[in-house]
Structure formats: C-alpha cells, structure tokens
Amino acid sequence: FGELQKLQYLWLDHNFLEGTLPSALANCSSLVHLSAEGNSLGGVIPSAISALPMLQVMSLSQNNLTGSIPASVF
Predict the structure, then answer these.
(1) Are 30 and 8 a contacting pair, CB within 8 Å?
(2) pLDDT at residue 71, rounded to an integer
(3) Which of 21, 23, 35, 40 gets the highest tally of CB atoms within 10 A of its CB?
(4) Quick check: keyword Nucleotidyltransferase in the entry (predicted)?
(5) In the 8-state DSSP scheme, what is residue 51?
(6) What's residue 31's pLDDT?
(7) Strands (E), the chain
(8) Model confidence at 26, in pLDDT bands (50, 70, 90)?
(9) Which among 68, 60, 49, 65 is positioned nearest to 14, based on CA atoms?
C-alpha cells in the first residue's frame, strides 16, 4: 500500500479475503472510504488506521475481527 498515497476509496467487499488488515493501510494517507465487508478477515483492527486523517467511513461488518476499535480512530 506504500505506493497508493492518493487512493481515496477502497472497496473489498465479499471477495473471500482472509488474514488480517495490514498496518500498511496507514500509508494510504488520502483514504476517505474503506470497506471490506463480508470477508473472513480476522485479528484486531490495527491502531495504525488512526493515522488516516481523511478517513470518514470504515465498514468492516461480517468478518471475524476481534477486540475493539482503537479509541484513537475516533
């Protein structure tokens, strides 16, 4: 994700994705909308997500995520 600094919208819904959300998403400094609903993502939401100054929408329902949303995201 390091080369995608101008990426604004990332939709990954219902793509049978597995694994965890990468901390490298924080490199997408222009990201406004992140959606990865209906996959098999697990683990915790990385606190690095809070480094996205433009993020307005984060939709991660219907996954296997654990833990809480980092308070720094709010």
Answers:
(1) yes
(2) 81
(3) 21
(4) no
(5) G
(6) 96
(7) 9-11, 18-19, 33-35, 40-43, 57-59, 64-65
(8) very high
(9) 60
